[in-house]
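Incident log, support desk, overnight shift.

02:14 A customer reports that sequence design results differ from what the structure should imply. Their input is reproduced verbatim below. On-call engineer (initials T.W.) acknowledged and began investigating.
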């Protein structure tokens, strides 16, 4: 109980006239009301603050997820672009190179190789793609 409340209760108890008692009661009622309003106001403010904090946190987490997703997406996109050789081009290269490694004539573990690497501006056209066996492809990779 606050000091004001106990003082008002004391006034009610010791009122010498009915009117003073009623006045004191009204004062107490107002005082308690104000207390309650203040409490409510504080509570609302705290709730709002907590909600705001939570929203901020959620937003940050969302942004983090989006950044991560974007990075992943661009990596996937790049990989797809650089590695995808159209089926028609694959067929054309396979036929032109007679189904064997252009370096050693091996017919096993053949791979499509960008003559000029995609990362250096090479295109996904038959002119820029050749058949290499895994072994020749790896040794080529080591010299570029
Ligand atoms: Zn080879």
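02:41 Re-run completed on a clean worker. Output:
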């Amino acid at each position: 109980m606050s000091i004001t409340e106990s003082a008002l209760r004391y006034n009610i108890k010791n009122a010498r006239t009915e009117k003073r008692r009623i006045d004191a009661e009204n004062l107490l009622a107002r005082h308690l009301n104000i207390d309650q309003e203040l409490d409510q106001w504080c509570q609302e403010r705290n709730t709002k603050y907590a909600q705001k904090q939570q929203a901020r946190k959620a937003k940050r987490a969302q942004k983090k997820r989006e950044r991560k997703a974007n990075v992943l997406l661009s990596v996937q996109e790049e990989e797809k672009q650089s590695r995808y050789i159209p089926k028609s081009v694959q067929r054309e290269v396979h036929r032109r190179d007679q189904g064997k490694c252009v370096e050693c004539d091996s017919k096993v573990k053949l791979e499509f190789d960008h003559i000029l690497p995609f990362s250096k501006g090479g295109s996904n056209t038959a002119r820029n793609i050749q058949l290499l066996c895994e072994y020749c492809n790896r040794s080529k990779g080591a010299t570029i």
